[in-house]
Design goal:
The complex is a heterodimer of chains A (348) and B (402).
Chain A (H helix, E strand, L loop, with lengths): L11 H5 L5 H20 L2 H26 L7 H18 L4 H20 L7 H21 L9 E3 L11 H23 L3 H11 L1 H6 L4 H27 L1 E3 L5 H14 L4 H24 L5 H5 L1 H19 L3 H15 L5
Antiparallel strand pairs in A: 1-2
Helix pairs in contact in A: 3-7, 3-8, 3-10, 3-11, 3-12, 4-5, 4-6, 4-10, 5-10, 8-10, 11-12, 11-15, 12-14, 12-15
Chain B lengths: L3 H25 L12 E7 L6 H20 L8 E7 L4 H13 L4 E3 L3 H14 L3 E2 L16 E2 L5 H16 L3 E7 L3 H4 L2 H11 L3 E7 L7 H10 L3 E5 L2 H14 L4 E5 L5 H7 L1 H4 L3 E4 L11 H10 L9 H22 L6 H10 L3 E2 L8 E2 L12 E7 L2 E9 L2
Parallel strand pairs in B: 1-2, 1-3, 3-4, 4-5, 6-7, 6-8, 8-9, 9-10
Antiparallel strand pairs in B: 10-13, 11-12, 13-14
Helix pairs in contact in B: 2-13, 3-4, 5-7, 9-10, 13-14
Classes of the chains: A mainly alpha (348), B alpha/beta (402).
Amino acid sequence: MATATGIHHRSYRAELRLRHTTSEWARLALVVVALIAAPWILTPYWLGIGNTILIAVIGAVGLNILVGFTGQISLGQGGFLAVGAYTAAILSTRAGLPPPLAVAVAVVVTALVGALFGLPALRLKGLYLAIATLASQEIILFVVKRWGFLTEDKGYIDVPRAPFIERSTFELQWYWMLLPITFLSVLMARNLFRTALGRSFMAVRDQDIAAEAIGVNLTRAKVTAFAVSSGFVGLAGALSAYYTETVTWERFTLDVSVLYLAMIIVGGLGSIAGSVYGAIFMMLLPPLLTELGGALSQQFPSFNEQLPAVKNAVFGIAIIAFLLIEPRGLNRIWSRMKDYIRFWPFRY
Amino acid sequence: MKHPRRTLLAAGASLLLGLTACGGGAAGGGGGGGGGDTAPIKIGIIADLTGATGDVGKPYNEGMLGYIDWINSKGGIKGRKIEAMSNDYAYQVPKAEELYKKYVADGAVVIQGWGTGDSEALRTKVASDKLPFMSASYAEVLTDPKQSAYNFVVAPTYSDQMRVALNWIAKDAGGKAEVAVFHNDSPFGTAPVADGQKYIADKGLQLGYKAYPMPKTPNFVGLLSQAQTQGAKYIVIQNVSSPAAQVAKDIKAQNLPMKIVCLNWCADELMIKTAGADVAEGHIMVQPFAPTGTDKAGLKVIDDYLKSKGSSLADKNLHYTQGWYTMDVMAKGIEKALSSGENLTGESIRKALETMDAVDTGGVVGTGKVKFSADSHRGSTGSGIYQVKGGKLVEIAANQVP
């Protein structure tokens, strides 16, 4: 039982635990139960949205490792997703690699490409780095768009559906495949920041000169951060290739990079849990607005007609609202809520 | 902890929003495709009203909804009304996929799509979900049932239109000529580019050929100067009306000796209107659908319907007609599937579309008739070639096939 005076640690080992209190374990149990029960509660449509969220969570966690934890801003997310998707699709359709192997190779290839495009980060910071990563987005998109041999001059790649996936249980089967992969990815990322490598990332973010002074190898930390982050993003891209069954460059435009940045801003920079919340929030927003538009179509037909514009506006308002009201995102809101209950009836 | 209470409130509100939405989804998902004998037939429409191709996407969508309104007012198809679910996807593939999933969950039996990118991306999905899919994309790959089992294309493909255009150019030039292809930088734009190049080689046409993706710039002076360096006398445009009109304006402003040959999506009244009649004068348009103001019999029914609504076909453009007849062909397939006595499913509609008699469009689409078979989902061949004269589309050659 957590005490009202706070949580006290008596050893470093205790402090490093992922969960400290029984109520934290109880909440985890609740989440696990909800995730396992989801397929029985949700319709295939909402389960499908759940699947896109699961893939987005992996991508958002990857981006947060780079932006939130290492402080290296990146606008190249869409490009790195494309590297993962195209690599997996090409390897499995043309080289005949089994999907798990193709996904694994895609992760490695994306990590390497990420490290390569991360090299400018050794000299650039802030806005300048943002522009450099924007260039990586444009370069990668140019390559997948114009190099015809990648798609055999078709402009898209069909990824055949695995034979064991049935039409009627498509979303369900994907849910059970994606859930453990996403769970493991999140767990891995969470654990990364209990290691020396993860802490060196945060040291670079907080003050790179100080980090160097205490012995952090800046070059290694920055390039590794780009590689690790891109590895996660590559995994998300590769999974999306199999899940959507067609790979086209139109899925990996700059909009996607901005969407992922929005996810981690809304969720909370420098927080793995925040990436999860942010991905859920940003991926649920459009279908919820579609539902709202459908429900209001009788009373306010113009709302439904302008839905894409409304979606863009809400998207922008959400980002501005979070930056103004709670720059540390949903994760911070959640922890404040927990504190409120824990300290009640006292304010702090 | 500045405003914990406010935070709690916000969290509670968002939770409620989430719950209501999930509840709505659960209720909506049970629909299914079958229904009773009088249950409405659900059709999902993916439309571009505000996106990159919205200028031509909006009238196309209005044409579809007009047709549905018209047939419902006549009692529907064999007594069953059409329930159209039509939403804007702003020409973005992920949004099209989101809408598609929603329509499947809501029990749509057929889908009417729009762009090449999304039609290609959804191709495998509609095949495994067994839902007939028509779209305003006439990319060659969509006509082959082996590659796109559930896609149906009512009009001649972009590649066919490109071949017709090249034939006309070769004849008009009477010998060697340079052709510049300005295309939308998307799967839609690139669809006929490689086929055009191949056609020139196969036919031994004396044409130089170079493709230029159209940048997102306010004008195309830079692109035109590249075409001028190439020595191009003919500019084939595979894009929508508004950018094509800008190319015409730039040619006029620069006083360049170039002739535009527009394919399908810029070969329309809107291009002339946007550019201005004097700017558009003399340019060529390859268009499989009959423009408004021509005397094709199939246009009358649309005009009558619009007049009953206080409008007329003259207020619309040929993309309205295009949407109307695309929906008409789909409706004929549904009608045949219903009269075969089978359950109305995507599968039975596909079979009906493949086996039904040619749909007579009163001379509006291609050669006038649209016919599919199990081996080919290419509905028609034959495009008209028009020249802009005095702000009107004047036919200079009918029923051109490559």
